[in-house]
UniProtKB/TrEMBL annotation:
<dbReference type="InterPro" id="IPR011257">
    <property type="entry name" value="DNA_glycosylase"/>
</dbReference>
<keyword id="KW-0378">Hydrolase</keyword>
<dbReference type="InterPro" id="IPR005019">
    <property type="entry name" value="Adenine_glyco"/>
</dbReference>
<dbReference type="InterPro" id="IPR052891">
    <property type="entry name" value="DNA-3mA_glycosylase"/>
</dbReference>
<protein>
    <submittedName>
        <fullName>DNA-3-methyladenine glycosylase I</fullName>
        <ecNumber>3.2.2.20</ecNumber>
    </submittedName>
</protein>
<dbReference type="Pfam" id="PF03352">
    <property type="entry name" value="Adenine_glyco"/>
</dbReference>
<feature type="region of interest" description="Disordered">
    <location>
        <begin position="121"/>
        <end position="140"/>
    </location>
</feature>
<feature type="compositionally biased region" description="Polar residues">
    <location>
        <begin position="131"/>
        <end position="140"/>
    </location>
</feature>
<keyword id="KW-0326">Glycosidase</keyword>
<dbReference type="GO" id="GO:0008725">
    <property type="term" value="F:DNA-3-methyladenine glycosylase activity"/>
</dbReference>
Length: 184
């Protein structure tokens, strides 16, 4: 079966590719989770984050933005000591900052709506990995919009990965069995 090259071998990455990547999600916690995990992935492999995702979900209270926004300095230290997650102080602090920003954004339509507003008019349709993008004008605009709302660790590359992950557009290569399977 034809797949994007990074998902060729059986295991977690293939399962993620086949069952989750590029499929639309809905709800604040689903968007907040993906935004948080994409930020933690910065500089690391996605397989590392996937392996730690159950622990992230526990440590960050099911990605309930209100509950995460209520965490304090003692919680940051507790998270820094949790070997089951990525222990990077700046990323942990960004997750707490982003939780508060997500709660504040509710009055303006919410995180999900803001992300979806930045969907590309002409989604990419790469034939091979050499044509795949890592940023776009839309991911750059989303990054700037989120920063204006107080978010951290939301650069254009991270936001492009978020847009791929949550199915803002179909990220699969032409020829992949998943290409064209789901649309927003």
């Amino acid at each position: 079966m034809a797949r994007c090259p990074w998902a060729g071998a059986p295991g977690t990455m293939r399962d993620y590719h086949d069952q989750e990547w590029g499929r639309p999600v809905s709800g604040e916690s689903a968007y907040f989770e993906r935004l948080t995990l994409e930020a933690f992935q910065s500089g690391l492999s996605w397989s590392t984050i996937l392996a730690k995702r159950p622990a992230f979900r526990e440590a960050f209270l099911g990605f309930d933005a209100e509950r995460v926004a209520a965490l304090d300095a003692a919680d940051t230290e507790r998270l820094m000591a949790d070997a089951r997650i990525v222990r990077n102080r700046r990323k942990i602090e960004a997750a707490l900052t982003n939780a508060a920003a997500t709660v504040a954004l509710r009055s303006s339509g919410g995180l999900e709506a803001l992300v979806l507003e930045h969907a590309p008019q002409a989604p990419p349709a790469p034939r091979h990995t050499g044509e795949q993008q890592t940023t776009s004008p839309e991911s750059t605009a989303l990054s700037k919009a989120l920063k204006r709302h107080g978010y951290a660790f939301v650069g254009p590359t991270t936001m492009f990965a978020l847009m791929e992950a949550v199915g803002v557009f179909d990220p699969h290569l032409l020829g992949c069995h998943r290409r064209g399977e789901v649309t927003q």
